[in-house]
Write a structure and sequence with these properties.
The structure holds two protein chains of two kinds.
Chain A (H helix, E strand, L loop, with lengths): L3 E2 L4 E2 L1 E9 L2 E7 L6 E6 L1 H9 L15 H6 E2 L6 E2 L24 E2 L1 H8 L3 H17 L4 E2 L1 H11 L5
Parallel strand pairs in A: 8-9
Antiparallel strand pairs in A: 1-2, 3-4, 4-5
Chain B lengths: L2 H6 L16 H17 L3 E6 L7 H14 L4 E5 L7 H4 L7 E2 L15 E3 L13 E2 L6 H18 L8 E5 L4 H10 L5 E6 L3 H16 L4 E12 L6 E3 L5 H9 L3 E7 L1 H8 L4 H4 L4 H19 L16
Parallel strand pairs in B: 1-6, 1-7, 2-4, 2-6, 7-8, 8-10
Antiparallel strand pairs in B: 8-9
Helix pairs in contact in B: 2-5, 3-11, 6-7, 7-8
Classes of the chains: A alpha+beta, B alpha/beta.
Chain lengths: 161, 319
């Protein structure tokens, strides 16, 4: 998909992505010549279709977590099934039913939280992500949302992140 | 701008406009493919257990072949590609297990025989609920197939299969499901086509065989399941279906028949409970058939020279 600025005959460049709610994805494109902007809004079905392919318009700035599409899209999925393994799997060792991994629960990021994280400058994004993740893990929070990020920012004095 | 001006306008084609938008969709798809290739590169041999036909026992064959390979000392992974009707987590006794969450990949639980298992069943809270995706409200059919393809891709690429010697993929019924796997794993080396002796099964499986042959799969072999009824009490055998669909299918298609598996009620009952004759009764006829099938596969893979081989039978083949 390309957007052409007709007066300039230039391909418009991707500039910004937002999830304003209601299942809408807003992708902003700008003409590098005249700086005219346009926003492409997708309806919920179109948003879902893009999501189902495991791609993000504008690029995947934050590294995706394993099985991100399945985990994020499965209705009725069990969050608690994912745990951080403390004992690595040993191939060839017979293991019976019910054996899994023990350890602290993992922290997932809601799509809105990921969007917000992507607005953090790339050179500090990894550090910021780790701070929020540690904050959530210490409080046994399974899903990081923008609201929890706000709380963390206030408590940890991270204004601007 | 006048209406006449718009009508006179001629746009360049997409390809003519060579400048990219910076949306990076193509790069992301390429990155997905790269991740998939890198993951699969660490696996010895990928074996699809398919049919096209439902109810022929693909999952049971997958589970028991995995256990037979494990019993031979192989490192084995099993991917339950039947997203809508998963059964392998139960068969291999990992239904209640967790998945390890690591940046390098999801660590699958180890089931019977140390077999690594990935199944949609492990992800669902209510095991009796149908598979559903978060639905934006309408037109599910437009994106559902794409979602299932992504889920299968992630099962392949985002699960830490380690350095497995074999990854067995249990492919659900439908030639489209085989096609989906072939799109993700275009160099699929081995497909086992499971059929029953019935004419109906033979006919449907023949279509799937044509599909995988056209796709250039190096090795396709027939596994005939439920060839006859094996009485668990007296050991007598009785035909379950009219005809010899498996043999006919192999002859007509020029494919090797690698196994003829009798129907032994104990096999299904045990598998339902997460038990296995392979380990508990390795000298039983059914266990010997699966061990022979594992040997056939192993021999074929290491020969580097695909040969038809001979089918593993329940009687006399292993003595």
């Amino acid at each position: 998909m390309k957007f052409l600025c007709i007066p300039c005959d230039e391909v418009m460049e991707f500039a910004e992505r937002q999830i304003p709610g209601d299942g809408t994805l807003a992708a902003v494109f700008m003409c590098g010549k005249c700086e005219r902007e346009m926003a492409m809004l997708t309806n919920p079905m179109e948003t879902q279709f893009v999501s189902s392919m495991g791609v993000k318009i504008g690029g995947q700035e934050v590294p995706s977590q394993p099985m991100e599409v399945t985990r994020g899209s499965l209705d009725g999925g069990s969050d608690s099934v994912f745990v951080e393994p403390t004992v690595p799997s040993q191939p060839g060792i017979p293991v019976g039913a019910g054996v899994g991994y023990s350890g602290p629960p993992s922290v997932q990021w809601s799509p809105e939280a990921v969007e917000r994280l992507q607005r953090v400058p790339s050179f500090v994004r990894g550090m910021v992500k780790r701070i929020y993740t540690d904050y959530a893990r210490e409080r046994q929070i399974r899903m990081l949302t923008p609201e929890i990020m706000d709380t963390a920012r206030s408590e940890l004095g991270l204004e601007g992140m | 701008m006048k209406k006449g001006d718009i009508e006179a306008r001629r746009f360049r084609t997409y390809r003519d406009v060579d400048h990219e938008t910076g949306s990076h969709l193509l790069e992301q798809v390429v990155a997905q493919r790269t991740r998939l290739s890198e993951r699969l590169a660490s696996i010895g041999t990928i074996v699809a257990v398919a049919s096209g036909k439902g109810g022929v026992g693909k999952s049971l064959v997958t589970a028991n072949l995995a256990l037979a390979l494990a019993a031979r000392g192989k490192r084995v992974g099993v991917l339950d590609a039947d997203l809508n009707g998963p059964s392998l987590a139960k068969m291999l006794a990992v239904s209640e297990s967790s998945l390890g969450d690591r940046e390098g990949g999801v660590v699958p639980p180890l089931g019977l025989g140390g077999v690594r298992v990935m199944s949609m069943e492990l992800l669902q809270e209510d095991l009796d609920a149908p598979l559903r995706w978060k639905d934006p409200g309408s037109e599910t059919f437009l994106w559902q197939s794409s979602m299932e393809t992504s889920a299968l891709r992630e099962f392949l690429s985002d699960v830490d299969w380690g350095d497995s010697d074999y990854l067995l993929v249990d492919v659900p019924p439908g030639t489209d499901k085989i096609q989906r796997l072939l799109e993700l794993v275009p160099q699929l080396p081995v497909v086992l086509m499971v059929t029953t002796p019935s004419e109906m099964s033979r006919s449907v499986v023949a279509r799937s065989i044509r599909l995988v042959r056209e796709a250039g799969v190096a090795t396709v072999a027939v596994v005939s399941n439920m060839t006859d009824y094996l009485c668990p009490d007296c050991g007598s055998r009785h035909p379950l279906f009219r005809g010899e669909g498996g043999r006919t299918l192999a002859e007509e298609s020029g494919l090797p028949l690698w196994a003829e598996i009798p129907f032994d009620p104990r096999l299904g009952e045990g598998t339902d409970r997460g038990q296995t004759q392979i380990h508990e009764d390795p000298v039983s006829e059914v266990a010997r058939v699966f061990l022979a099938l594992a040997d056939q596969l192993e021999s074929h893979v290491h020969s580097g020279n695909p040969t038809p081989g001979r089918p593993a039978h329940a009687r006399g083949d292993l003595e």
